[in-house]
Amino acid sequence: MRIVERLQTIGEVAKELQIDRWRLAYLIERGTLPDATVKVPGRRLFAPTDVTALKTALEQYKRGKRALGDDPEQQQSNGAGRTDR
Question: What is the C-alpha separation between 22 and 19, in angstroms, rounded?
């Protein structure tokens, strides 16, 4: 019996990870996050193992940004970086 894995597009993965599609694509292109293992011309298709790897890498990335004080979400919540003061 052969099990077929459901492959997801970058948009579906971005929605699952709760991140903008363009940001996910940027982080992958930059090498910050791992790329999909399945590629067809013009598309990235992510297997469940790819999505798990992305979740782990994204959490590590977010933790690293917070440790460096470079977390944009944190800056917005505490008013840092505001220019209207």
Answer: 9
Residue with tokens 């011309």: 41
Q: Are 14 and 20 in contact (CB under 8 A)?
A: yes
Low-confidence ranges of the chain (pLDDT < 50): 74-77, 81-82, 85
Q: What is the pTM of this model?
A: 0.70
Distance CA(30)–CA(80), nearest Å, equals 26
User: Got the DSSP string for 13-53?
Assistant: HHHHHTS-HHHHHHHHHHTSSPPPSEEETTEEEB-HHHHHH
CA dihedral 68, 72, 74, 76 (to 10 degrees): 150
* Amino acid sitting at position 47: A
